[in-house]
Write a structure and sequence with these properties.
Distance between the termini: 76 Å
Shape: globular
Strand content: 25-35%
Structural class: alpha+beta
Largest sheet: 7 strands, antiparallel
Amino acid sequence: MFRVDIPVTIHLRGPFITQSTVPGSYGLDTAAARDSRGRLYIPGTLVAGKLRESWEELHSVMGNSMPYRVPDKKMLHELLGKGSQDDQGSFSPFPKRLHVSDFVLASPEPASSVRYRIEVDQARGAVKKGALVVIESPFSPSDRPSFSGRVTFLAKSEEYSDKIKGLIQTGLSFIEDMGAFSSVGFGHVEDVKVGRPVFQPLWPEKPPVFDLSSGLDLAILPDGPFCIARRHTRENNLFVSEEIIPGNVIIGAISRMLHQLGEDGTGSFGSLFKNLSRLRVLHALPSKNCYERPSALPLSLVKAGNNLFDVALMEQPCLIDGKVPAFEVDWKDNTDARKGLGWPELERELRVRTAIDPDTGRSQEERLFAYEMVVPDQEAVWLSRVDANRIKEPELREEVLRELFALLSAGLLGLGKTKATARVKVHKGGTIQDTEGTCNQGQIQDAPVVITLKSPALLLCPEGLLDGKDNGLDETATHRELFSAYKRAWKELSKELELDYFYASQRLSGGNYQYHRFMKDAGTEEDKLYYPWILTEAGSVFVFSITNTEEAEGKIESWLENGLPIPETVRGFYGISSKEDEQWKSCPFIAQNGFGEIGVNMEIHWRLSPPEERVQPIMMEIG
């Protein structure tokens, strides 16, 4: 079993341009696409699209007469995935096997010039008014630019790799042009060189160089821009990336890699395959400080003037330095607070894409979409943790982590919306530290106990709306109703903690895809009503009194190790299984996917607590 990287070089004849989706210099209507480092490039999505088009044309002519040179429709979908137009009504993922990188200019960039195009008025045969287009033209007709990239995939054998290489060679060899303005002679493809595959063996039987009992720490380094899309509406064709890589995205990539290696539970990665749902993978958070994982901004942070405070330990409203404190929702900028908790500033890149009509070679109607992608720089790394605490058998736990260690030597393939690739450095558990520490168990004896969500958690449900009593949670819920709902939720999780007050925000998650993917089979025919999940967001702060110290310490220790479980009432409302190993089938927001990660009595709550002499209770001011 191997990770295979096939180098590919595309030789073109000028002029050539791939259009940028960001404005160019003043006076340019069409600018050349450049990556975040300023290099001319051909998007990997364009190369993959041309490869798909070439294979489809060849198959329409040759049929299945040359299976080692031209893939049939089934194999084409396996290699490059299914588009939405190919899979109407299906909500099951059908990811691609081949990952095509961007192709970067391999030769020195010549001095740019401009070209002009006009549009002719068909009625008059003269130049149409206002139809002059100024095009950046980096390459003249005498230039022969070369662009280099790679195709990456997993293979069970060298024979399979050779077959894929032959398919790629055939498909790319029949591409005649690349880029914009091909109908007027731009972007003629003179030659495509498919290099020798580079094999990286996967050795699941080879032991790591460190002890596995404390789990694995992961440092993820994306190979290029990626998009982990935030929630968006159907009317919006812009996919904006989160800056984190959620645990369920990492687990999804691992699962796809296992299936692409043909794993069914009986192969070299059989233990990992069978026990993947028992692993817990934390969200990978970006950092530029080596092995320091940033913490979510507590929602108890406030600003008074130019000063930052944490009011988690203050139960009653107050003035600070005579000013009304402003919470984050009212800040104009949170950069300083984020920086203090270890969050780096990351660059973003906008790429606009469209589907091409194979018959006309033009953009299809209503098929335009855009990605706002996160661009990793040379210093940024995404930090995560993997634990196997739910696997109680020591030998099996070590075997599963050893197989995961071997699989991750191939990196992660297929992250997010753009199916990006990433390298992974695997370290001994405990190597990565949080920027804000969690107290030891001895400190928990001192009330109050402050629990801060480091990742979103599923704690609430709109219970009460279904019985017609109109006593459930919706967008009109007041603070009192939220307090009552949170109090019930925490009581379900632990009878030893009494909620005193909280600082929290919520968001809804759902929609057509998530309903059909996770909720459709929940409940009976009579109660199949759709309600989105109510997520309590990262940074939410809950302050408790303790009724039983010993029992509370045990609960908190369990939550720190395994994440917050989903309250029974929430599971019942949404039809989520009570068996932890099966919850992934009906809900993405489970602890194994990195949700419900907590910090307890984080240092920031005490360090930034306002001094007593600077605090004025509001009741005293009114009196």
